[in-house]
């Protein structure tokens, strides 16, 4: 009798659990699972927003590999990822080390470096368009003061992506907060013992700080790589969605968006989305495999 009552009670609790979680479950199925499954199907069709389309098999993928702009968008995206992710990590770690120092007004400095990451991307774009203006921008003005002729920056095919990398460092404040959390998790005993042994600041940084910070670096490396591969707002706003000059700012997600909502080639865009998904999975898997060689977790041999 007691067992039967317990069984009924457990079933009742499960039912209540399903009822209370049903809004989230329905949202997951309707707004995530269903679009995901349908995008796979659409990638094999000529579907557009205005037309149901028809089954075309691998034609979308074949056309993609023959599309020169597709390869340009891949090059631009990989260029940005390869250069921005390491630079942003070095920049973030360096600033986190400085902001972790026990100095007066520490909280104020941390806030000042974090605030830029809260600025809306459109506002950031407007600010940097003014700073990097080749005629009256402050950056070129400062360069002229020291005798260096300023480049065209965003108006140059060769300087547009370096300019974008420079602009993107504006939002490094979020990763700085994570690095700071990792630095404060390192036991002070390690530094005290190393100082007693006569180690220098550089030696403590190399043999204590960086090794014990590698789990945080690993996390930011994965998140930074995924984010860089999906770079969209800044280049789209800077080039008005055109990827100018000479497609040097045409990034992968921009071209995907242009095909899907500009040319209404939703099947083509779905194929692009799944190729990007595979690229992200492969790169993430490679990073996970490599972490066994350079990531150190405290308490593990």
Q: What would you report as the Rg, rounded to the nearest angstrom?
A: 25 Å
Q: In terms of structural class, how would the helical and strand content be classed?
A: mainly alpha
Number of strands: 0
Helix/strand order: HHHHHHHHHHHHH
Distance between the termini: 52 Å
- Helix proportion: over 70%
The average pLDDT value, as a whole number, equals 91
Largest sheet report: none
Number of helices: 13
Gross geometry: globular
Q: Report strand %.
A: under 5%
User: Low-confidence parts, pLDDT < 50 over ≥5 residues?
Assistant: none
Domain ABC transmembrane type-1: 74-287
InterPro entries: ABC_transporter_permease (IPR051393), MetI-like (IPR000515), MetI-like_sf (IPR035906)
Family: Belongs to the binding-protein-dependent transport system permease family.
Organism: Paenibacillus harenae
Sum this structure up briefly:
With 301 residues, this protein is mostly helical.
Structural features, described:
With 301 residues, the chain is mainly α. The protein is 71% helix and 0% strand. It has helices spanning 2-42, 59-65, 68-99, 106-114, 121-131, 138-145, 160-168, 173-184, 188-196, 201-229, 233-238, 252-262, 266-294. Helix 1 (2-42) packs across helix 13 and helix 3 (68-99) packs antiparallel against helix 10 (201-229). The protein is globular, with a radius of gyration of 25 Å. The relative contact order is 0.12.
Topology record:
Elements: H1 2-42, H2 59-65, H3 68-99, H4 106-114, H5 121-131, H6 138-145, H7 160-168, H8 173-184, H9 188-196, H10 201-229, H11 233-238, H12 252-262, H13 266-294
Helix pairs in contact: 1-13, 3-7, 3-8, 3-10, 3-12, 8-10, 10-13, 12-13
């Amino acid at each position: 009798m007691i067992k039967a009552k317990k069984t009924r009670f457990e079933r009742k609790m499960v039912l209540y659990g399903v009822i209370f979680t049903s809004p989230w479950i329905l949202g997951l199925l309707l707004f995530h699972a269903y679009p995901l499954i349908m995008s796979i199907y659409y990638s094999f069709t000529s579907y557009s927003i205005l037309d149901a389309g028809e089954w075309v098999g691998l034609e979308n993928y074949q056309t993609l590999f023959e599309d020169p702009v597709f390869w340009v968008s891949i090059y631009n995206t990989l260029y940005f990822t390869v250069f921005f992710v390491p630079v942003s990590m070095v920049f973030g770690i360096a600033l986190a080390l400085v902001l972790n120092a026990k100095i007066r007004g520490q909280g104020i400095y941390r806030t000042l470096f974090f605030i830029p990451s809260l600025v809306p991307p459109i506002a950031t774009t407007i600010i940097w368009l003014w700073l990097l203006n080749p005629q009256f921008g402050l950056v070129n003005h400062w360069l002229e003061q020291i005798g260096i002729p300023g480049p065209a920056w965003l108006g140059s095919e060769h300087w547009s992506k370096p300019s974008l990398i420079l602009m993107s460092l504006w939002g490094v404040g979020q990763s700085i907060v994570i690095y700071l959390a990792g630095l404060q998790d390192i036991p002070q005993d390690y530094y005290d013992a190393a100082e007693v042994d006569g180690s220098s600041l550089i030696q403590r940084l190399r043999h204590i700080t960086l090794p014990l910070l590698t789990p945080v670096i690993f996390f930011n490396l994965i998140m930074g790589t995924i984010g860089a591969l999906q770079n969209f707002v800044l280049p789209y706003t800077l080039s008005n969605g055109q990827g100018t000059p000479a497609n040097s700012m045409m990034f992968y997600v921009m071209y995907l968006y242009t095909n899907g909502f500009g040319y209404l080639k939703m099947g083509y865009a779905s194929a692009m989305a799944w190729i990007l998904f595979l690229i992200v999975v492969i790169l993430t898997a490679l990073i996970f495999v490599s972490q066994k060689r350079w990531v150190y977790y405290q308490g593990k041999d």
